[in-house]
C-alpha cells in the first residue's frame, strides 16, 4: 500500500513541551490535488518545510537524488508569483529552489516538488509520491517509528 519512512524535527514551545513535526514519505504516485485530499482526510496535510535542516531530512528520505515528491507548496491561483503552503502556514518564508526554478508560471506548473537537489514548480496533474506531515507530542512518540 504505502511505504512509510518516519522522522524528526523538534519544535520547542517556550522550553516546556515539545511537539514533533513528523514527515512521512508515501511512495504511491498521485496528482498533487489527490495527494492533498488524501493527506487531509487521513492525516494532516502535505508537508510544509521551514528550514534548511528540515529540507535536508526530506531530501535524505527520498533515497536518490533524482527521486521526486510533492510537498505542500503551490502557487496562489490569483497571484501566480506567490507560493503558499497547503496547511496555511504563512509564517515561513523559507525556499529551496533549484537553479532557475521556479520557471513554470506560464506553463501552468502551479505545484511544487522536491528532489535530491531542491525544489521546482511542476504540473499539478503529474503523478508523484508525496510527503505528508503529522504533529505529535514528543511524550507520545512511539518507538516503533524509525528515525533518520
Ligand atoms: C492570493 O493572493 C490574493 C491577493 O494577495 C489574496 O487575497 C489571497 O488570499 C491569496 N490566496 C491564498 C489562498 O492565499
From TrEMBL:
Recite the UniProt keywords alphabetically.
Signal
This protein's source sits in the domain of life called Eukaryota
Q: Name one Pfam family in it.
A: Lectin_C
Signal peptide stretch = 1-17
Q: Which PROSITE patterns match?
A: C_TYPE_LECTIN_2
Tell me which SMART domains the record gives.
Answer: CLECT
UniProt keyword annotation of Chloroplast present:
no
Q: Does the keyword Signal apply?
A: yes
Q: Where do the C-type lectin domain residues begin and end?
A: 28-130
What PANTHER family would the database entry show?
A: C-TYPE LECTIN DOMAIN FAMILY 20 MEMBER A-RELATED (PTHR45784), C-TYPE LECTIN DOMAIN FAMILY 4 MEMBER K-LIKE-RELATED (PTHR45784:SF3)
Q: What is this protein called?
A: C-type lectin domain-containing protein
Species of origin reads: Sinocyclocheilus anshuiensis
Amino acid at each position: 500500500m504505502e511505504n512509510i519512512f518516519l522522522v524528526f524535527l523538534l519544535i520547542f514551545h517556550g522550553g516546556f513541551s515539545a511537539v514533533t513535526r513528523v514527515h512521512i514519505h508515501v511512495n504511491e504516485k498521485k496528482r498533487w490535488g489527490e495527494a492533498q485530499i488524501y493527506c487531509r482526510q487521513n492525516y494532516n496535510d502535505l508537508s510544509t518545510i521551514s528550514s534548511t535542516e528540515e529540507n535536508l531530512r526530506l531530501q535524505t528520505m527520498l533515497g536518490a537524488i533524482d527521486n521526486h515528491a510533492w510537498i505542500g507548496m503551490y502557487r496562489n491561483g490569483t497571484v501566480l508569483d506567490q507560493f503558499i503552503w497547503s496547511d496555511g502556514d504563512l509564517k515561513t518564508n523559507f525556499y529551496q529552489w533549484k537553479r532557475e526554478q521556479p520557471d513554470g508560471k506560464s506553463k501552468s506548473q502551479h505545484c511544487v516538488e522536491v528532489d535530491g537537489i531542491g525544489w521546482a514548480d511542476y504540473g499539478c496533474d503529474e503523478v508523484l509520491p508525496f510527503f505528508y506531515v503529522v504533529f505529535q507530542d514528543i511524550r507520545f512518540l512511539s518507538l516503533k517509528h524509525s528515525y533518520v
